[in-house]
Amino acid sequence: MINRYEVYETNQMIAEENLDVRTITLGISLLDCIDADLDKLNENIYNKITTVAKDLVKTGEEIEQEFGIPIVNKRISITPVALIGGAACKSPEDFVTIAKTLDKAAKEVGVNFIGGYSALVSKSMTKSDENLICSVPQALACTDRICSSINVGSTKTGINMDAVRLCGEIVKKTADATKENDSLGCAKLVVFCNAPDDNPFMAGAFLGVTEGDAVINVGVSGPGVVKHAIEQVRGKGFEELCETIKKTAFKVTRVGQLVAGEASKRLGIPFGIIDLSLAPTPAIGDSVAEILEEIGLERVGAPGTTAALAMLNDQVKKGGVMASSYVGGLSGAFIPVSEDKGMIDAVEMGALTIEKLEAMTCVCSVGLDMIAIPGKTSASTISGIIADEMAIGMVNQKTTAVRLIPVIGKDVGETAEFGGLLGYAPIIPVNEYDCSAFVNRKGRIPAPVHSFKN
Amino acid sequence: MKKCVITVVGKDTVGIIAKVCEYLAGANVNILDISQTIVDGYFNMMTIVDVTNCSKEVAVVSKELEEIGTSIGVAIHCQREEIFEKMHRL
Which residues form the signal peptide (chain B) (predicted)? Predict the structure, then answer.
């Protein structure tokens, strides 16, 4: 029988170390909503989402109450809209009507984000893909709960540099379209390489075409729990440190598995995957940076940061894999700047630069995430940063992503405020040497030689 | 059998167990195990209960126990046993 110490440990994790299930994300396929008539398509989409997801929030809240574990977000991911709207949408404006429908459906069922306003263009773009991408600034400016992602590269296909160039411009236009709110629109726009089909985390969640009609994917979290656990092995060797992280990740993931199983059973929707991630929030004690500092760095960004993060990421996976029947999504430590108090502090005091963050993305999920850069940064420089990050993903056969916020009207030394889980971020300097001649070359970067495995 | 773990933590006062047990009896919840200590005036109780024949939803029991806790100045949590079982047992 369960003993007092085990109960105490679990409840302490929840009450004092911010243990939570970060998200239950209901994936909904919209493939069967496709229609050549735009009004009919919008109606089909609205009806499907509000039918399949009608009990999602209520069920999540019941599980929270019964098990005493907070489930921070209930969200929806959908089939990439560029595929769904292809037959009906002849212009970017047509796609914006779908964004509005999605926003309305999200509000109706009470989820805080719906992800999948997306295009998968890792090799080339269809007219529909291009229209969707061009509609993103307007779509994000006139909606509240839509998240958009664009996959512009993969290890198998190489990097679609035409899409990278376009995305640089789109990031800039989105920033401009939402400049009254510190360019908040860009916090809901991710550019990916090797985007996973089953990611439950925003802003990059979408339901890939390889998935079924509906699926429950769950993202766990728990940076505070890991930090507390490794405080107990301060000064000890790597073996003990790694064992401690693994054991903690195991416990955290088991909670996610339990919640996923319950949600799946109650909603009558199959369970997909658990995403084993350390997802920080701006709350004190819920920070990945603080874990790295507890491991032995004065500040995140100091030499040793990449190695410490590589180790942390690997141990989280090793501990978590055994605790779940299916693992997927992004699975790894997240290093967003604005959503992590330790990262924010490190950037503010100059310990952490965008170049170090780029190095860190080589060894963890996901990428250059929630980084505020000067509003004057050119579209081609943003494309250059995206290309660099995509190259890391392509060559290392991992997911990488870029979520940069060029804060219009602000510069280094100022701070952008996004609010809530999105947090706030000091504006970080960016290398201003020009890369436009590189970015303006047409076509794509070929797939690396080690992708030819057949 | 569907089990829950109820924990009560807070400053000791007269009738904490009585209040909790009275509520549980009213909801047709059977107590399987109960243990209690007081350290430095702080009351600490853990109870394992059977909610198989409970007349209310577990979520409702949990919410109402929380409210009882608030009214007598202690923190009461009622959680399904599985969360502890899954985390600490293979």
Answer: none
Comparing alpha-carbon positions, the chain A residue that sits nearest to B45 is A4
Q: What is the ipTM of this complex?
A: 0.90
The minimal CB distance from B83 to the residues A4, A62, A67 is found for: A67
A254: contact with B, CB 8 A cutoff: yes
Query: Rounded to an integer, what distance in angstroms lies between the CA atom of residue A105 and that of residue A117?
Result: 14
pLDDT digits (tens, 9 = 90+) for A329-382: 999 899 999 999 999 999 999 999 999 999 999 999 789 999 999 999 999 999
**Residue A279 DSSP label:** -
With H, G, I as helix, E, B as strand and everything else as coil, classify residue A117.
Answer: strand
On whether any CB of chain A is under 8 Å from the CB of B85, the answer is yes
Residue of A nearest to B9 (CA): A8
- A251 at the B interface (CB within 8 A)? yes
| Residue A154 to residues A136, A269, A313, A334, A380, Cα–Cα distance (Å) | 22, 30, 22, 20, 21
Q: Please give the Cα distance from A446 to A231 (Å, whole number).
A: 46
Task: Give, in degrees to the nearest 5, the angle at Cα B38 between B37 and B43.
Answer: 95
Tell me how far apart the alpha carbons of residues A329 and A342 are, in angstroms, rounded to a whole number.
25
Q: Is A66 within 8 Å of chain B by CB? A: yes
Three-state SS annotation for A185-227 = HHHHEEEEECCCCCCCCCCCCCCCCCCCCEEEEEEECCHHHHH
- Strands B74-80 and B3-11, bridge-based pairing: antiparallel
| Contact predicate A427/A412, CB 8 Å | yes
Is the CATH code 3.20.20.370 the one for domain B3-87?
Answer: no
Count of CA atoms in the C-beta half-sphere (13 A) of A74: 22
Instruction: Nearest by CB to B59, from A6, A62, A255: name it.
Output: A62
> What confidence tens digit (pLDDT) does each residue in A436-454 have?
999 999 999 999 999 998 8
Q: Could you give the C-alpha distances from A424 to A281, A348, B84, in angstroms and in order? A: 11, 11, 35
Rg (CA), chain A: 21
CA–CA separation, A54 vs A38, rounded Å? 24
Check A10 against B62: CB less than 8 A apart. no
Q: Do the chains contact at A254 and B87, CB–CB below 8 Å?
A: yes
Query: Which residues are CB-neighbours of A244 under 8 A, at least 6 positions away?
Result: A229, A230, A232, A233
pTM: 0.93
